[in-house]
């Protein structure tokens, strides 16, 4: 499973997700895209997720369609539930 967090620096909800990533020890396994300086990231978020809203966690599993997870509380819950598998 591969995960990518689409975010901005000044978004408080993005900051909450970044703190959860750090607390769960997932800093090395969750890729980060900062949209302030990433036009391709904005385009990917719009095309893949259907909206430019942050935070958004892109979840990619082999053989399955990509999942675009919005809402900081949903992202944090997903990370908590899958931390062990992501760290494997």
How would you describe this protein?
The protein is α+β, with helices and mostly antiparallel strands. The chain has one domain: Glutaredoxin. Helices cover 44% and strands 23% of the residues. The protein has 3 helices and 4 strands. The protein has a 4-stranded mixed sheet with strand order 2-1-3-4, with helices on both faces. α1 (12-23) links the parallel β1 and β2. α1 (12-23) runs parallel beside α3 (72-87). The longest helix has 16 residues, at 72-87. The protein starts with a strand and ends with a helix.
What is the element layout, followed by pairings?
Blueprint: E1 2-7, H1 12-23, E2 30-34, H2 39-49, E3 56-60, E4 67-70, H3 72-87
Parallel strand pairs: 1-2
Antiparallel strand pairs: 1-3, 3-4
């Amino acid at each position: 499973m591969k995960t990518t967090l689409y975010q901005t620096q000044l978004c408080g909800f993005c900051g909450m997700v970044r703190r959860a990533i750090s607390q769960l020890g997932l800093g090395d396994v969750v890729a980060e895209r900062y949209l302030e300086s990433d036009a391709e990231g904005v385009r990917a978020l719009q095309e893949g997720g259907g909206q430019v809203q942050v935070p958004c966690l892109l979840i990619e599993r082999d053989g399955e369609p990509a999942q675009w997870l919005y809402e900081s509380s949903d992202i944090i819950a997903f990370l908590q539930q899958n931390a062990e598998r992501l760290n494997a």
